[in-house]
Amino acid sequence: MKKKIVCMLLAGGQGSRLGVLTSSMAKPAVPFGGKYRIIDFPLSNCVNSDIDTVGVLTQYRPLALNAYLGTGQHWDLDRTNGGVFVLPPYMTEHDGHWYSGTANAIWQNRSFVDQYDPDYVLILSGDHIYKMDYTKMLKFHVANEAAATIAVLKVPMEEAHRFGIMNTDENGTIVSFEEKPKNPKSNNASMGIYIFNWKLLRAYMDRDDADPSSENDFGKNIIPTMLNAGEKMVAYPFEGYWKDVGTIQSLWEANMDLLGEKPVLDLNDSAWRIYTRNPVMPPHYTDAAADVKNSLVAEGCVVRGKVLHTVLFCGAKSDTGSEVMDSVVFPEAEIGRNCLVKKAIIGENAIIGDGAQIGVPLKEGEVVDNHLTGDIVLIGSGVEIPAGASIPCGAVVTAETIGQFISGGKEA
Amino acid sequence: MNQEAFGLIFTGEANPYMRDLVLSRAVAAVPFGGRYRVIDFGLSNLVNTGIRNVGLIVQRNYHSMMDHLGTGKEWDLNRKRDGLFLLPPYSTKDNTGVYRGDIDAFHSVMQYVRRSPQKYLILCGSHTVFNTTYDAVLKQHVESGADITIMYNEDPRFFPEEQNRDLRLLLEEDGKTVTGLEWNPRNPSSNFRSCEINVIDKELFEDLVEESYARGGVDFVRDILLPGVKDLKIMGWRYDGYVARIDSINTYFMHSMELLDASAAKDLYNMKHPIYTKVKDEIATKYGDYADVHNVVMADGCVIDGSVEDSIVFRGVTVEHGAIVKNSILMQGVTVRAGAALDHVILDKNVTVNAGRTLTGYEGIPLVFRKNLTV
User: Fold this and answer.
1) Which CATH architecture has domain B2-268?
2) CA B357 to CA A332: how far, in whole Å?
């Protein structure tokens, strides 16, 4: 049955810059904001924008994502006609290939899109946190009679070199595109959100696929080719919160952006709810000795200590006498008694033993491999930090590396 | 064996002792435990036992119940085979429309009972809250060859002035053989109280109900169980977990506050048997810079910037900076404005307390404010 628009969500990223957080799950399944996963944001934006058909493209650990999405009922995407579909690479009678690039992932699933004979296709990536009404962008696309519309955000000029930059004329028509330019001409950063006329995109993808030198990537190949061919491409200016949470630092920052009296990112918005697979957990309990301020606390948590400027996810626990600050504590992680946790991301089901100190300043001469983390401590999923242990700033602690941080080199 | 049982929940009871909380809803639809309604426990117990066929008899004010349950998908009861059946009253020649008692209701839904393929029926009331599965009581029922098995617990508390559907079991030393029953006794001779769960063979249930109905029987306990002690094999099955009987405003308040006690909460919120409820997609609860929260059970979606102590806080509650809440129950969507002070108060859904108001109830006499009021 025909649909006006179909969404294809690129969720393939392993997200290697998120280090141990993505060792067992794709980036879109990384927890965010107390009870969400990153993928809840594009999915909820779709549903709130009345887009009811979403293909989720993934080739990295599809099971976790598949299990998470289920029938789509939690996002109201269990539809008779349409709904949410996980689309991993597949074999045909002739051959089969991994997705070689973002455009190739869509191209390999062209028959999925064709089923709905859509006029437009919306292409999203699964690793951005933002609230956006795509119907406005579609109206803009239609009003401009564009072949493609790319959502852009004004970023500070000094950061523009980190983004794909769209240079436009005074009407908002894109005249050139530069991927991570050394000397950016403008600060219109691409948000990785595209609307294409489906039939036209399909033709360009066919040609791109036939070109063996192409990397089959939207940013590197499809968009420049369409621009060179003189297609009308327009930049849709977006104002509001948008964050690529592809690094430990940005993931931590985005969580902190939810805190404060007037948070930069306010999710307490009944007009634009973010849907999620709600865990079935009781209300949280804050005990008589607890002291919780400027924090988010999700259901299932038990708080007995001090929690400041922190996000506690579903089922996380912090016991008596502990102090947790500036931290992100993932689902069902447990912090024991009398611990000190500063500026850390604690992985799912991790256990911090009694009296452990997380995020202590480096001792003189101590060296920590912090190229992924900066000064944020990252404790991997399910890792057990023994009682009394001391973990320095910037450390990445996994089952493999824990020995480095525990005196005697062995777990207690 | 669990596939051989189905559940039938009667939610038609009136209870004047619940006062304002049941003005617009059945006791089963009363919010309880921070994010649930009373019915969630009964339904989840059945689902956690593996039961996939549940009939729910509704009578008065069942709008909020229908809204809450929907297709039953949150309980995984939106099934093609079996599933959740809402059984509202309707008038036909077999059906009286308005039920005088549960026997009337059972008679009216007998078609559903007959069509259910399972052999055993778990007959459930709707004002007793606990978290367990029925595997053990079913097993005992089948193995003992009992006609009816009543789940009971030991509850020494007695509130004679608010007595409501109080069924007491007189038992032999084995704790199983029922020798007598007392119904709303003035001076109870036993502390063993029915948990409103009766396991009974479906065919026997049909016979007993139809026979009693034909003779003008009204109440299942009074007209079937009490006389049944003589000719039926009635057994008891003892439950030792936490049981909350929502009989009156006072017991509602008392049991709510017991959830601040670790052992009651651990038992009722036992994550091995999760309690399902309608999902609201609220954000995690937000504590502000001035939040001062001690000994509180609190659901998602709240924004707390005031002081809250020894209280139960449902989803989506706002407590502004400078407000003080003590010993209170704040239901979904309540707003307490700056500088208001509450003690021993129950605020029903969407009540707003304006800035600077002081509302004080007393222990045993909580103040209740009905739904949607602005104070």
Assistant:
1) Alpha-Beta Complex (3.90)
2) 39
